[in-house]
Write a structure and sequence with these properties.
By secondary structure, this protein is an alpha/beta fold. It folds into two domains: 3-111 and 287-303, Nucleotidyltransferase, domain 5, CATH 3.30.420; 153-284, Nucleotidyltransferase, domain 5 (2-Layer Sandwich). The protein has eleven helices and ten strands. The protein has helices at 40-56, 80-94, 107-110, 153-170, 177-185, 190-199, 210-218, 222-244, 257-261, 263-276, 290-303, and strands at 3-9, 13-20, 23-31, 67-74, 98-102, 117-121, 125-130, 137-141, 251-255, 281-284. The strands form two sheets. The protein has a five-stranded mixed β-sheet, sandwiched between helices. A five-stranded mixed β-sheet has the order 8-7-6-9-10. Strand 4 (67-74), helix 2 and strand 5 form a beta-alpha-beta unit. Helix 5 crosses helix 6 (190-199). The termini are far apart. It comes from Oerskovia enterophila. It holds the Pfam family BcrAD_BadFG. InterPro entries: ATPase_BadF, ATPase_NBD, Euk-type_GlcNAc_Kinase. This is BadF/BadG/BcrA/BcrD ATPase family protein.
Amino acid sequence: MSVVVGVDVGGTKTHVRVARGEERLVDLVVPSTGWSAQPSGAAARWIAERVRAALGRCRPSLTVADVAHLTVGAHGCETPRQCVTLAEELRLLLDVSCTVVNDAQLLVPAAGLDEGIGLVAGTGSIAVGRHRETGAYLSAGGWGWVLGDDGSASALVREAARALFVRADVGATRDPLEPRLLASFGAENLVELASIMSWRGGVETWGQHAPVVFRALDAGSQVSRAVVTAGGGALAELVGNLVYRGAVGTTVVVAGGVVTQQQALRNALADALERRAPQTTLRMLDEDPVEGAVFLARRSVATGRAALAPTRSNAS
């Protein structure tokens, strides 16, 4: 049976799975520290190092020469050009047949479905689907933690801090979120919090503070409640936009650390989705997203065709 490798490169962690037929040979999970989809050459070397490490853990040890196909779901690969370029770099580097897609494209096949909308709400947020007529992949969101990614861990913290700053400007009473968020960032006051978030560590560190928002919600924070409700609404909006643009399927497969770990956000998403896209149903992914990469790799071996890359097509 053919050996295939699936890789899920997320914003926080990377999962490499080596499989032969239906047998899982090795799972390697490592932090995504240092990952960037650009430049493609450096990204390919980053992935190749982790693929080789996973193959080396097989018993007996395997090399890339044993791999029939490699499929990578890569956080930050948003366009066909990015996906194709990274795949070519990996082919040149590893001399192996390779497909690269956006990491959100792994969710629907990981759930064992042929069609549907994948929604990620973790370090960032993005929704992906496939056009019902052309088959082109569609995406909404995924614009980054500074300008977008609403509903993600990073954006929830961003919006929580902004809400506290607005309350301070109008002289509102202190919300239970304020002391908790200050303590989480090690800030003595809101002025220092603004400085830390702006200049120390960067936005890529914001997401780790998201649990504080939910703990404050449990303590009665109205700011946290408003932020979480808006975050769930933003995620539903991504799905609704894809439905409007012609995405096929009625199941929304959801994954990502913040949405899987926080019931309050899941509830807000479900409530908003009933209003924005009532024809859809939510399904929390109960399988590792990397299984979607393995599925696509197996399919590529069986059909001799690579998976389709995503596109920001405006087809409707």
